[in-house]
């Protein structure tokens, strides 16, 4: 979501006549879009802002940290301007005002989901994010998002469709729908599954539709069936687990049990052919014992993820879990994380091997940075593969997987 916001802000500034430079030295204004999910990201952003102020740049702090800390961030980061996640609409006015008067300001008003009418697609761009919803009302006890992105708000389905059609007319063939909890999308008439159908049925050139992130507590059979019957909905579900122990899930306020989660994941595997399932897992949440941690490993064993983002629990100021008494020490967190990664990786490898000698259609994304002379792309179930040679980003190639290098399948074109 931050990446997408940055792109929209970048375009808004360019439309106003600002000139973009990727040379830090030549920039007069530095915009820093910040993340608050874990502490380290916050610290890095603050440090970078101070560094830029020492070089006499005008510094604008955007994003979740800006929303969460507001006025306080002006002094912590030494930035000139702080703009919260729902106030980007005003960015030009605020910048012009600063140029004129030089007054430092923090603006964190709720002006709704930030949009740009008729976004101009970059040369060669084939894939785009589309906001469908912003904010979250789930209040998981570890998470800062409800405080940084505000209450859950859904965009009107027809506005979304109009934006998608504008994008496909400019050459976009893949869209990723963005929301903190897409399964509870509701615009008063359309639910998430209806929205997916609407986009599938009314687009001409879009070949792939992805979304992130669903929440296991709100995912419906209707959505699972819509995906299983679709030619455009990518066969990939990111299903954040967070933890496997029912005790921890309750303390996290996740709203599902281990058993319900496993049942849902296996149903998804049953009903959506060749689906890939990825997840987010936190280790070392307060009160997590060795037994609780093994419950997480047990879910991993049952579901066999195709990919996972794994984190040590990071205490976030203002969240309920930050006040929980029994915090887990850093060393235990580190050890559990290493063990988890090893487990997850074994199953990823097992899943990748199933791809050997099978045919896949791959959407090329660009040159591989790791494998010189190879292109990188994604299968229809969102697995990254490499293909020998160079292909224009956005082209679809067909081939057979003949080798797995690390975790990456290598596609041979006949
Ligand atoms: N500590 C560690 N990980 C966190 N996440 C969210 N909040 C925290 C936290 N306080 C992780 C969750 C979420 C992902 C985006 O970041 O796993 O799904
Ligand atoms: Fe945070 Fe996701 Fe929970 Fe919302 S559902 S509070 S965004 S972890």
First CA to last CA: what distance?
Answer: 38 Å
Ligands in the structure?
5'-deoxyadenosine, iron/sulfur cluster
CATH class of the largest domain: Alpha Beta
Overall strand count? 17
Helix amount? 25-40%
Count of discrete domains: 4
Largest sheet, in brief, is: 5 strands, mixed, barrel
Beta-strand portion reads 15-25%
Rg over CA atoms: 22 Å
Report the uncertain regions: none
- Please tally the helical runs, counting DSSP H or I stretches of 4 or more residues: 13
How are the strands ordered across the major sheet? 13-14-15-17-16
Shape: globular
Q: Mind explaining what this structure looks like?
A:
The structure is a single chain. By secondary structure, this protein is an alpha/beta fold. It has four domains: 2-107, Rossmann fold; 117-234, 2-Layer Sandwich (Transcription Regulator spoIIAA), CATH 3.30.750.210; 247-354, Transcription Regulator spoIIAA, CATH 3.30.750; 359-412, OB fold (Dihydrolipoamide Acetyltransferase, E2P), CATH 2.40.50. It has helices spanning 2-15, 39-54, 63-69, 71-77, 91-101, 145-148, 157-169, 192-202, 221-228, 246-252, 258-271, 290-303, 330-353, and strands at residues 29-34, 58-62, 81-83, 105-107, 127-131, 133-134, 153-154, 174-178, 208-212, 236-238, 276-283, 307-312, 359-367, 374-378, 384-388, 396-405, 408-412. Strands 13-14-15-17-16 form a five-stranded mixed β-barrel. A hairpin with a 5-residue loop joins strand 14 and strand 15. Helix 7 (157-169) runs parallel beside helix 8 (192-202), helix 11 (258-271) runs parallel beside helix 12 and helix 12 runs parallel beside helix 13 (330-353). It is globular and about 65 Å long. Residues 136, 138-140, 143, 145-146, 180-181, 215 line the site of iron/sulfur cluster.
């Amino acid at each position: 979501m931050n990446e997408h916001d940055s792109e929209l802000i970048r375009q808004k500034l360019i439309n106003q006549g600002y000139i973009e430079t990727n040379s830090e030295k030549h920039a007069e204004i530095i915009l820093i879009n910040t993340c608050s999910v874990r502490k380290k990201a916050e610290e890095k952003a603050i440090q970078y802002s101070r560094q830029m102020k020492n070089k006499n740049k005008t510094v604008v702090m955007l994003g979740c940290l800006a929303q969460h800390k507001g006025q306080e961030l002006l002094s912590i980061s030494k930035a000139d301007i702080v703009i919260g996640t729902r106030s980007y609409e005003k960015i030009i006015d605020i910048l012009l005002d600063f140029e004129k008067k030089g007054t430092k300001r923090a603006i964190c008003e709720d002006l709704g989901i930030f949009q740009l009418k008729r976004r101009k697609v970059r040369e060669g761009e084939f894939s785009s994010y589309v906001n469908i919803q912003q904010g979250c009302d789930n209040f998981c006890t570890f998470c800062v998002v409800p405080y940084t992105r505000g209450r859950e708000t859904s965009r009107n389905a027809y506005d979304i469709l109009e934006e998608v059609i504008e994008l496909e007319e400019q050459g976009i063939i893949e869209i990723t729908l963005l929301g903190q909890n897409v399964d509870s999308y509701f615009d008063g008439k359309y639910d998430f599954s209806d929205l997916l159908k609407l986009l599938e049925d009314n687009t001409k050139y879009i070949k792939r539709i992805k979304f992130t992130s669903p929440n296991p507590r709100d995912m419906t059979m209707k959505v699972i069936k819509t995906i299983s019957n679709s030619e455009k909905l990518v066969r990939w579900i990111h299903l954040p687990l967070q933890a496997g122990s029912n005790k921890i899930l309750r303390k996290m306020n996740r709203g599902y049990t281990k058993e319900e989660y496993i049942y849902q994941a296996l149903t998804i595997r049953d009903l959506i052919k060749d689906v890939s399932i990825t997840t987010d897992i936190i280790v070392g949440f307060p009160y997590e014992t060795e037994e609780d941690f093994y419950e997480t490993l047990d879910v991993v064993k049952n579901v066999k993820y195709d990919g996972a983002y794994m984190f040590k629990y990071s205490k976030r100021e203002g969240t309920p879990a930050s006040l929980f008494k029994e915090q887990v020490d850093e060393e235990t967190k580190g050890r559990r994380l290493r063990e988890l990664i090893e487990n997850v990786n074994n199953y990823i490898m097992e899943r990748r091997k199933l791809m050997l000698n099978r045919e896949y259609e791959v959407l090329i994304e660009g040159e591989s940075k790791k494998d010189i002379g190879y292109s990188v792309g994604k299968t229809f179930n969102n697995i990254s593969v490499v293909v020998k040679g160079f292909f224009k980003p956005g082209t679809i190639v067909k081939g057979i997987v003949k080798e797995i290098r690390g975790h990456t399948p290598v596609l041979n074109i006949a």
